[in-house]
Amino acid sequence: MTDSLRTAARSPGAPTRRGFLKRASGLAAAGIAPYFVPASAFGADAPSNRITLACIGVGNQGAAVMQRFLDLPGCQVVAVCDVNRASHGYKDDTQFLGRDVAKQTVEGFYAKKQGAGAYRGCDAYVDFREVLARADVDAVTVCTPDHWHAAMTIAASAAKKDVYCEKPLALNIGQGRAMIDAARKHEVVVQTGSHERSNPIVRQACELVRNGYIGEVKRVVTNVGYHNKVGPGPGWRPMPIPEGFDYEMWLGPAPMAPYHQDRCLYNFRFNYDYAGGQVANFGAHSNDMAQWGLGMDRSGPVEVECLHAEFLPAGSLFNAATVTKFRCRYATGVELLCQTDEQEVRCVFEGTEGRVEVENKGKNFKTTPASLADVTLRDEQLLHKSDNHQQDFLDCVKSRQEPAAPIEVGHSSAALCHLGNIAVRTGAKRLSWDPAAERFVGNDEANRYLNCDMRSPWQI
Q1: 355 by DSSP, 3-state: which?
Q2: What are residue 367's DSSP bridge partners?
Q3: 255 preceded by a cis bond (ω within 30 of 0)
Q4: Are strands 217-224 and 303-310 parallel, antiparallel or unpaired?
């Protein structure tokens, strides 16, 4: 971490890296591994060169992201933060996750890496503001429910912490724009968790499209999955808040609502108060591929319309649409069709001279004609080259260069998903959208979905 950035982040009287190293010596003398693992455990990657990282939100996705950073020698995880102490109830019933589990994972990882003794260098928090107050933290991950992304990223930016924020970038378009403004004002690096941007297979597919190898693009089809969880229907009843779960903090800026286990943890995705359903979940990848291939990843369509939508009965805990189909049109005339479908192919580019199909999770891509897959592109035709999304973030924290999925790109890809959801929620047959002003033209009802009130004291 550069001295200038360290100085900008440090508050008066805050502990310095030298102070931490001095404290580390005392801990080592007592037989306890210090905050910073000795350089010998990491070869040439000395502690002074590693980025100190705090992980905010360590549930299903957050725990996976944390592990990916742990596996990289260029950083040191020094803190974890989550409103859940530890429990089951995530995506997989076998998962037992939370801040205590994350702390144990971090300390166990570094103890094993050191090869001897115990390690006591990771603190656990409930309130993310305590993490941001630490002068020894260079960067944070924000892997919380979507309704928290804006408040946390903006606060982290003000605290001069670089941010790795999970996709979709924000709960709505207004919050995403506020996140961009904060990041640029405070000159922090923000990497959106649109990790297909660091997938060489997806990158090559988009390079072919952007460089005209399928001719003029006429249409893109993106697929998103169905709900993979079932929530209670009308008449559901509140449940007692479990011990060790700070429900008030979990809600944060979202409207006050009675606790139910299917409202929280992984299932937040299916309630519009906290997320955008599978359109914003899976769509944040498939629609991001579409925008990237079209060269529209800092802009968006000019028109959107709902073709079909299905919802659970009124009064169900899950209120996000279970089935959607919407169509967008770009100023170039290209049409994008996003639909609920479990096809293995998640993004299809159709051109006048061929097509490119990208499979789920970017595992493979196919071309028509097949020979396109063997094309060798010139250097000037290549996109941002990154094969590891987390390493790319760390590299950019050091270099201050733009990452593979910068905040503006994360915003425009998420905005495309939000536009589809707005069309679905309003039932609009056709909405005119101004991508520069980020407003619907002549439709006040649709514009009301561009932002939302935040419950006090949380504001952005």
Answers
A1: strand
A2: 356
A3: no
A4: unpaired
Angle at which helices 60-70 and 389-399 cross, to 10°: 60
Is the Cα torsion angle 409, 413, 419, 425 positive or negative in sign?
negative
Exposed/middle/buried for residue 6 (C-beta within 10 Å: 0-12, 13-18, 19+): middle
Q: CB of 330 within 8 A of CB of 301?
A: yes
- Locate 197 and state its tokens: 């941007």
pLDDT tens, position by position, 34-92: 344 433 344 445 556 899 999 999 999 999 999 999 999 999 999 999 999 999 999 99
Q: For residues 202 and 110, what is the distance between their CA atoms, to the nearest angstrom?
A: 33
CB 270 within 8 A of CB 326: no
Mean pLDDT of the chain: 91
Given a cut of 50, the residues of the chain with pLDDT beneath it are 2-44
Using one digit for the tens of pLDDT, what is the confidence trace for 295-331?
999 999 999 999 999 999 999 999 999 999 999 999 9
Which has the closest alpha carbon to 446: 297, 282, 306?
Answer: 306
Quickly list DSSP for 135-161.
Answer: TT--EEEE-S-HHHHHHHHHHHHHTT-
